[in-house]
Design a protein that fits this description.
Layout (H helix, E strand, L loop, with lengths): L2 H8 L14 H10 L36 H15 L3 E3 L7 E3 L2 H6 L2 H10 L4 H18 L6 H4 L8 E6 L5 E5 L10 H16 L8 E6 L11 H14 L4 E7 L6 H7 L5 H4 L2 E3 L26 H25 L8 H4 L14
Parallel strand pairs: 4-5, 5-6, 6-7
Antiparallel strand pairs: 1-2, 3-4
Helix pairs in contact: 1-12, 2-12, 3-5, 3-6, 5-6, 8-9
């Protein structure tokens, strides 16, 4: 099965596959036109209230230019790239199997920017970056990311306790976390839900942006509930170990007294770089253009969560963007170290044609 088909089917966008299971490329190109609609357009065109995600950042968002690597950093990147290109398997944490074959999905994940994120996270230690990349490849395999389908995750999001919509002033997609809308018992599936939404947030990143914004609203509906410490530590471990350099900003508002001790308990487990990105009870209009910020958070967007409308729209939008990335990756030669800027629709050629983002 082609990589594009695997990802399309995994994301549940069956309406855009042919009867034989292959991707309808013409439909994807038609979708590409829709993905370039007018400013502040939602996926289904809904307004007042909006019911589906925004498709692209607004003109008020400015994606920063990527910094240029120093000669030493370029050298270390090339060393890591050479090492990663030699991989044909990824390690297993169990004797059976001893390892797993490296898949096309893995190779596409190993982009230029991905390698650089792990190098930055390890302070440019090539060996440690390689070990951590292998650890994440193993985690993605054994955690079962591709088995977490929209249907499997759907019950967790039935109340809209997580909403992915809009982009901040730097063009980062915004993932709203609403703990007060918790609808399920504490379990590992709640963590799987967050990981699933992180993956969809990454799918919606525009060309040139590799970070996301978390907006956490502890409104009064939270009552006496607070996240268990074990769950907070697990989420932090996943974010810091397997999504390094992905968090651009975390905006946290309406923190009730019952949750404040939780932040004090979890604080020692937050690395300093992440801690600097946390902002508490500030005016969110300074961080997210009002035209793409929900009214419940001080913005101008009247948003109503209807699960039967929002959930299929989010997954179809993410699947279309992901499938187009797969098509570009395959067209460029299915290379490890491909540019995310190119994959996300950037006009530059792929790495085989000398692209250097």
């Amino acid at each position: 099965m082609a990589a594009a088909t695997q990802i399309q089917m995994a994301n549940g966008a069956e309406s855009h596959t042919k009867q034989n299971g292959s991707i309808d490329i013409q439909d994807l190109h038609t979708s590409a036109a829709k993905l370039s609609m007018a400013e502040n357009a939602t996926y289904d065109g809904s307004t007042n209230p909006a019911k589906t995600p925004f498709i692209n950042p607004s003109s008020a968002s400015k994606i920063p230019t990527a910094s240029t690597l120093t000669p030493d950093q370029s050298s270390k990147y090339e060393k890591l790239l050479t090492t990663v290109k030699s991989w044909t398997t990824k390690p297993s944490t169990t004797p059976n199997p001893p390892d797993y074959p490296l898949t096309d999905s893995d190779r596409m994940w190993l982009t230029r920017e991905c390698l650089l994120r792990y190098l930055r996270a390890t302070k440019w230690d090539v060996h440690q970056a390689g070990l951590r990349l292998q650890g994440t490849l193993t985690w993605r395999q054994e955690y079962g990311l591709e088995k977490h389908t929209p249907k499997y995750i759907s019950p967790e999001n039935a109340t809209g306790k997580q909403v992915l919509t809009g982009y901040d002033v730097a063009g980062r997609p915004c993932l709203y976390l609403n703990p007060g809308k918790q609808n399920t018992e504490r379990s590992n599936k709640q963590v799987e839900h967050l990981v699933y939404m992180l993956e969809r947030t990454i799918d919606l990143m525009p060309a040139g942006q590799e970070n996301l914004s978390l907006i956490i609203n502890f409104d009064k509906k939270l009552g006496g509930e607070r996240p268990p410490l074990w769950q907070g530590k697990q989420v932090l471990n996943i974010l810091q170990s397997h999504y390094p350099e992905r968090l651009g900003r975390a905006l946290i508002i309406n923190i009730p007294w019952i949750v404040q001790p939780f932040f004090k308990l979890i604080n020692p487990f937050i690395d300093p770089a992440t801690r600097e990105k946390l902002k508490f009870d500030q005016d969110l209009r300074h961080f997210v253009p009002p035209a793409q910020l929900l009214t419940t958070h001080g913005g101008d967007v009247d948003f109503v969560y209807e699960h039967d409308v929002y959930w299929p729209a989010l997954n179809e939008l993410a699947a279309k963007k992901k499938a187009m990335m797969v098509e570009r990756w395959e067209t460029a030669g299915k290379k490890i170290g491909e540019s995310e800027f190119y994959l996300r629709g950037g006009t530059s050629k792929g790495i085989e044609n000398g692209h250097d983002s």
